[in-house]
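Let's practice the habit of predicting before peeking. Look at the sequence and jot down your guess about where helices and strands might fall. Then scroll down.
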Amino acid sequence: MRSWLHTTDQDVLMIEADDEINSDSAAPLIENVGQQITRSLRKVVVDCSNVDYLHTPGIANLVSLHMRLRKSKGHMAVCSVSAAIMNLFHVARLDQLLDIQPNVESACAAVRGEGG
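Done guessing? Here is the structure:
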């Protein structure tokens, strides 16, 4: 997996991932995001439009990031999730925990507290 970070409008940290999210790829990513949270950046969007598979450790890291942001009074939204991954989220009831949005635009609005 290849993943990278960048900010959008200087207040939202975008995480874009390709291929799959597993323990090898997610751990360094979560550490990097943790450093960003420490620097007062507390709005995060995880774009899964190119993610084909989400391993159990990847799920655990997403939940960990969500909880860390929540503790810091931040907000994370996951967007552009495939039907297969959405089904996994539903079965694991993560769709009740995570803010899942259909696209990047709605995810950015959600973490900024804009709109309905």
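How did you do? The two ends are 33 Å apart (CA to CA).
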